[in-house]
TrEMBL record, chain A:
CDD domains with a match to the protein in the record: WD40
Signal peptide annotation: none
Record text on subunit structure and interactions: Interacts with EGLN3/PHD3. Interacts with ERK signaling proteins MAP2K1/MEK1, MAP2K2/MEK2, LAMTOR3, ARAF/Raf-1, MAPK1/ERK2 and MAPK3/ERK1. Identified in the spliceosome C complex. Interacts with PARD6B and CRB3. Interacts strongly with GTP-bound RRAGA but not with inactive GDP-bound. Interacts with p62/SQSTM1.
Record's GO cellular component terms: catalytic step 2 spliceosome; cytoplasm
InterPro entries in the cross-refs: WD40/YVTN_repeat-like_dom_sf (IPR015943), WD40_PAC1 (IPR020472), WD40_repeat_CS (IPR019775), WD40_repeat_dom_sf (IPR036322), WD40_rpt (IPR001680), WD_repeat_MORG1 (IPR051980)
UniProt protein name: WD repeat domain-containing protein 83
Organism: Fukomys damarensis
GO biological process, one term: mRNA splicing, via spliceosome
Automatic annotation (TrEMBL), chain B:
Taxonomic superkingdom: Eukaryota
Protein name (record): G patch domain-containing protein 1
Family classification: Belongs to the GPATCH1 family.
Feature: compositional bias, Low complexity: 489-498, 893-902
Region (Disordered): 1-41, 170-209, 463-510, 565-594, 658-920
Record's compositionally biased regions (Pro residues): 803-813
Length: 315, 920
């Protein structure tokens, strides 16, 4: 009692444009932070995948080897490898340092919308337009997937992985959560085609964005609706949503060129960050800092909170 | 010193030291003992050899390193006036005086060295030098030496010259005749050691033919043995390429690298016995060649560049093989056959034939006639019994034809029943092996008649008259040509009554077959000598043996195959479940519920489905998660077998539905209908909520779509036009109607297949197609059949049933209408009503949606049908009597296959066959 409880710092929203990366790889289909948020990956429509330091704006490496545009990418927990999937129906496992293709998993019948490593980067889960999620084993040399989750009735638009769960959103309007530990599949009907799903950082909720321009926060265990966030526009494209670094806010892309921030609890619109005139195609929220990456057109913007001093300037 | 006399001093020249004069009385001195005879140098030191490392002959002061005073190093003294000069010690500073003397290692005296001693006239030396020059790495390097010639001749030369020696001669007494030159004669074998070289070569070799007797010759000069040490790493006797010969030399002795083969070949071909100068024996080479071996070529000596080809020439001078090591072609074979001889050693006492053998004349085989077919058929000999009188008659008829029915001979044209017949299977009860078996005799007669009719018009007329039996004619599997009609019917009758119980392996040879059957009979009786008995005694032993073997083998094979085959194939005990698919046990359904729940934001239990889901073991391992179902081998959702949801399943539905409306005789045949319809399909979609709305929708659209759709089915109209008069007289049975409707709507079906067949329902469509083929097969086969005349006729037949639906109400139009309507519902461009089309929406989406939709469709249709039934109820009473007839037949028909023909109602059985076919 001698020391007063530290006053919780008011959450800050990244709204200061820190850097704009001109990726030079066509349209940026997706932008992703790596596991610690120091680097980011941009998936280009020119078949390349690029690794950046978003804060400094330096291009670290270009990974080329896809046969068609890259639609999603993810980094492993140890930053040693990357995976990506694209329009060439292939899921590619990359070696970060050498830039070489380690494995190329083929088997999807359509373009791969989303890829994700599991926690230990032993399995790549890829969701494809062919309405299946395939679990590719990175350890063995088996060309076929370990398991194919083909319960979706339509294309899989989003896959997220926790330590024992696979969360997938499908265009058939359902969010499916495969619980490996319980051996159960929970299917929540949302109705509208799902564009993006994500776990909350505490692992208790799932955030679901769908094409009816609504984000829903569902209780993971019961499927109950905890919150609904509207105001943005998402009726056509597969746009990303995310939760802020401390689960205080819900962030979503919008087709009107803004990024919307809602207060998670109250559901009120906290900020509509204007990014540009086009569609904000993708976003990524830093895992533990108020830092946001948005992708619009061929460039990626890096946003920080107002009080942020650029590292380069500081030292 | 010797005493010199003055007078003689001038005359005498005395050399050496004179002995001391002996004094008188003095004993001669004892000789110095051996041990005292020591050699001393000028300093009085013993010249003793101390060993190479202890000073040699002399070292220092009495074999010490120092001097008399001992070893004193030179002291360094340097002052201003007397500077110590930097002395560079040379080797001489460490040498003894003896070393610098005349015989020392570094003599100081000036002498003519060997290099400058006269050599020009020394032929022997010169020769050695030439030899050295030849062996030197750089040939001709000694040329320079030859220019520098010291004038001085050695004393030996001068002495020899004074004695009359001339350069170039040997030393020794002159001889009368020149020694025989040691030339190795070819053919002469020389054994023993090699002669010293040089005897046969050199400048002295120019020999004259003319040798006068009184001339003596000096002995030959001898070239000294060259003791040049070998300092290089070449092989022994290696000589470098001679640049003169290599570059400018004549290519007379062209080295053919590939000459070995051709030489060998020429050896083989030509000079067999000639020994081409090869010599056995040792001739000048010290080692490497055994006494009996052929001498190797001097590979080094022959190595000159000019022997190699430097350009690619048009033609190889030799065999034209261009380096190929393939066996050499006998080029000369063409020019003269006689040159080709026996290759190899000719035995003693034999010689090669001078005249070649006259070649055998080969006569060409006789030319076959152009139309000859190398197949011969034996007519099976059929015993004239009452059973196969049909067959006999048919055979007799068919023999008039040149070619017998190919169906008898080609197994590809046999159908299943015939194959079964051949294999001796008993016809399986309950399943019709041939539709013909359902025909009554009367019908068959009619068929025959129709076949024989060639004129289209006549056929049409006939069709009209036969309209009531049309169904039976539609079910004909194929259209044999008229000549074989009776044959076929006879066969059919035969199969109906009695079947051949054994397969005839030797049907082509009736005699043999007879013997074989006899053999079988005997075998059955258990006679051991069955074989011997039945064999033809007139045969040769070899033939008997062969036939015995054949028979026993055939008996094993065919007897066992009959039994094993029949035991191996059984009829399906349950319905063919190829139209079933594994589907997840639990389906996410009730979308409507959920939609409303979503609308009300009642997320939670209402919107959640929970399934048992089995992750694969490896996935659990990779996720570091214990397997939730350790025992199960299941992966994914638990699955159950369900009926396949195929679009084609639903396409066939309207075929039966119109029949319900057209003639409300549905009651008698619910069973067969159900069979074709797969009732479980109806049960799988459990939600009944939307039925009403959808049926309403159906009726709405029906009224809208109806008229134009009617136009789009021309075949029905055509049928009506074909037989307008028949409308009234036929009370068409229902199955025919249904088929007609189905037929009328075929084209759209094909269209759908073209569109959807590539999708996942291909297997089901195939199956569907099968049944459809069996249904429509008769007609389509006949329409497109090989017989042109028959096709016209049968098409008319096919149309006749279509004309059959006599319903006064626009019923025929309605089913079609409905059909088209259903198509629209199923396959029209439908987008998911719930899901807005995403920009990234997949091509699969519509299909999947359709898939789901089709599931939902069942209910409405069923309901729909029910309604129709009610509507048509009023018509039922009209046909009640017929219904009853049919009912009885239908109940009996599945069990009784053949015998049912005798019953009067042929229509009933024929009507049933398609359904039977469907069922199979």
């Amino acid at each position: 009692m001698a020391f007063p409880e530290p006053k919780p710092r008011a959450p800050e929203l990244p709204q200061k444009l820190l850097k704009t990366l001109d990726c030079g790889q066509g349209a940026v289909r997706a932008v992703r932070f790596n596991v610690d948020g120091n680097y980011c990956l941009t998936c280009g429509s020119d078949k390349t995948l690029k690794l950046w330091n978003p804060l400094r704006g330096t291009l670290l490496r270009t990974y080329s080897g896809h046969g068609y545009e890259v639609l999603d990418a993810a980094g492993s927990f140890d930053n040693s490898s990357l995976c990506s999937g694209g329009g060439d129906k292939a899921v590619v496992l990359w070696d970060v340092a050498s830039g070489q293709v380690v494995r190329k998993f083929r088997g999807h019948a359509g373009k791969v919308n989303t890829v994700q490593f599991n926690e230990e980067a032993t399995v790549i889960l890829s969701g494809s337009i062919d309405s299946s999620i395939r679990c590719w084993d990175c350890r063995s040399r088996r060309p076929e997937p370990v398991q194919t989750l083909d319960e979706a009735r339509d294309g899989v638009s989003s896959v997220k992985v926790s330590d024992h769960e696979v969360l997938s959103g499908s265009v058939d309007g359902r969010v499916r959560r495969y619980d490996l530990r319980m051996g159960q599949l929970f299917s929540d009907y949302v109705g509208s085609p799902i564009t993006c799903t994500c776990f909350s950082r505490d692992g208790q909720c799932t955030l679901v964005s769908s094409l009816d321009s609504t984000l829903r926060l569902l209780d993971k265990d019961t499927g109950e609706l905890l919150g609904e966030y509207t105001g943005h526009k998402n009726q056509e494209y597969k746009l990303d949503c995310s939760l802020s670094e401390r689960d205080t806010h819900v962030v979503s892309c919008s087709e009107d060129g803004k990024v919307f921030f809602w207060d998670l609890v109250e559901g009120s619109l906290a900020l509509a960050l204007p990014v540009g005139h086009g569609v904000v195609q993708s976003l990524a929220f830093h895992p533990n800092e108020p830092c946001l990456l948005t992708a619009m057109g061929g460039s990626v913007q890096c946003w920080r909170e107002e009080a942020y001093e650029a590292e380069g300037a500081a030292g | 010193m010797a005493a010199l006399h003055s007078d003689s001093e001038e005359d005498l020249v005395s050399y050496g030291t004179g002995l001391e004069p002996l004094e008188e009385g003095e004993r001669p001195k004892k000789p110095i003992p051996l041990q005292d005879q020591t050699v001393r140098d000028e300093k009085g030191r013993y010249k003793r050899f101390h060993g190479a490392f202890s000073g040699g002959f002399s070292a220092g002061y009495f074999n010490t390193v120092g001097s008399k005073e001992g070893w004193t190093p030179s002291t360094f003294v340097s002052s201003r006036q007397n500077r110590a000069d930097k002395s560079v010690l040379g080797p001489e500073d460490f040498m003894d005086e003896e070393d610098l003397s005349e015989f020392g290692i570094a003599p100081k005296a000036i002498v003519t060295t060997d290099d400058f001693a006269s050599k020009t006239k020394d032929r022997i030396r010169e020769k050695a030098r030439q030899l050295a020059a030849a062996t030197a790495p750089i040939p001709g390097a000694t040329l320079l030496d030859d220019f520098i010639t010291p004038a001085k001749l050695s004393i030996g030369f001068e002495l020899l010259r004074k004695m009359g020696w001339k350069e170039g001669q040997g030393i020794g007494p002159r001889t009368k005749r020149r020694a025989q030159r040691q030339k190795p004669d070819p053919g002469v074998k020389i054994y023993g050691c090699a002669l010293p070289p040089g005897g046969s070569e050199g400048s002295e070799d120019e020999d004259d033919d003319y040798l006068p007797d009184n001339v003596t010759f000096a002995p030959k000069d001898v070239t000294p043995v060259d003791f040049t040490p070998k300092t290089n790493t070449h092989g022994l006797e290696y000589k470098g390429l001679d640049p003169h010969r290599a570059l400018f030399g004549t290519s007379a002795e062209h080295l053919n690298l590939f000459s070995g083969g051709s030489e060998g070949a020429s050896d083989l071909l030509g000079d067999v016995g000639l020994n081409r100068g090869r010599k056995l024996g040792i001739s000048g080479q010290a080692f490497g060649v055994g006494a009996l071996e052929e001498e190797d070529d001097d590979i080094y000596a022959t190595e000159i560049l000019s022997k190699y080809d430097t350009v690619l020439k048009d033609e190889e001078p030799g065999d034209g093989l261009y380096g190929w090591t393939a066996p050499r072609e006998y080029k000369s074979q063409k020019e003269s056959k006689n040159d080709l001889r026996y290759i190899g050693k000719i035995l003693d006492g034999f010689s090669l034939a001078s005249k070649p053998l006259s070649s055998k004349k080969i006569y060409p085989p006789p030319e076959l006639p152009r139309d000859y077919r190398p197949v011969h058929y034996f007519r099976p000999v059929v015993a004239a019994t009452s059973e196969n009188s049909h067959l006999l008659r048919a055979l007799a008829e068919s023999t008039t034809k040149a070619v017998p029915d190919p169906a008898m001979h080609s197994r590809h044209q046999l159908n299943a029943s015939k194959r079964g017949e051949l294999l001796g299977e008993t016809p399986v009860q309950g399943s019709a092996t041939s539709v013909l078996e359902f025909l009554s005799q009367k019908d068959r007669e009619r068929i025959k008649e129709m076949k024989q009719a060639t004129d289209l018009k006549a056929a049409q007329l006939q069709a009209r008259s036969l309209a009531q039996n049309a169904a039976s004619s539609r079910a004909r599997p194929s259209m044999p040509d008229p000549g074989h009609g009776s044959w076929r019917t006879a066969l059919a009758g035969g199969t109906a009554t009695a079947r051949p119980s054994t397969f005839k392996p030797f049907a082509k040879d009736p005699e043999k077959q007879k013997r074989y059957e006899e053999f079988l009979v005997q075998m059955k009786k258990g006679q051991k000598d069955a074989l011997e008995r039945c064999l033809d005694p007139g045969m040769t032993e070899w033939e008997r043996g062969r036939e015995r073997e054949e028979f026993s083998r055939a008996a094993q094979l065919y007897m066992s195959s009959h039994s094993t085959l029949s035991s191996r194939f059984t009829h399906a005990k349950e319905e063919d479940d190829s139209d079933q698919v594994e589907v997840p046990r639990d389906q996410e359904n009730d979308v409507s519920d959920k939609q409303s729940a979503v609308k009300m934001k009642m997320f939670g239990k209402l919107t959640r489905d929970t399934f048992e889901w089995h992750p694969s073991k490896l996935l659990c391992k990779r996720f570091n998660v214990p397997d939730p179902y350790p025992g199960s081998t299941l992966v994914g959702l638990p699955r159950v077998k369900r009926d396949k949801y195929s679009v084609f399943n639903f396409l066939t539905l309207p075929e039966t539905e119109p029949t319900v409306q057209a003639s409300s005789e549905k009651v008698p045949q619910p069973r067969s209908l159900d069979k074709s319809r797969k009732p479980s399909r109806w049960d799988t979609s459990p939600h009944e909520k939307k039925e009403d709305s959808i049926s309403e929708f159906l009726s709405l659209t029906r009224s809208k779509v109806g008229p134009p759709k009617q136009e789009s089915s021309p075949s029905v109209k055509q049928g009506e036009e074909h037989a307008p008069g028949s409308l009234s007289e036929k009370a068409a049975d229902k199955g025919v109607t249904s088929q007609a409707e189905g037929e009328g709507s075929r084209p759209p079906m094909d269209l759908f297949k073209a569109i959807f067949a590539s999708s996942s329902e291909s297997s089901s469509s195939e199956e569907e197609g099968d049944s459809e083929d069996e249904q429509a097969g008769p007609e389509q086969a006949s329409c497109t059949g090989s017989q042109g005349s028959a096709s016209a006729e049968t098409s008319s037949v096919a149309h006749a049933p279509e004309s059959a639906p006599p319903e006064p109400i626009p019923a025929p139009a309605f089913p079609i209408q409905k059909m088209q309507l259903d198509e629209r519902e199923e396959f029209g461009p439908r987008l998911p009503p719930v899901f807005c089309p995403n920009a990234r929406q997949k091509p699969e989406t519509p299909q999947k949606e359709k898939y789901k939709k089709s599931k939902e469709k069942h209910k409405p249709k069923k309901e729909h049908k029910r309604k129709k039934d009610k509507k048509k109820k009023h018509r039922k009473h009209k046909h009640k009597s017929k219904q009853k007839n049919k009912k009885s037949e239908k109940s009996s028909s599945p069990e009784s296959t053949d015998s049912s023909d005798s019953q009067g109602g042929g229509e009933g059985t024929t009507d049933l066959s398609p359904q039977e076919l469907l069922r199979r």
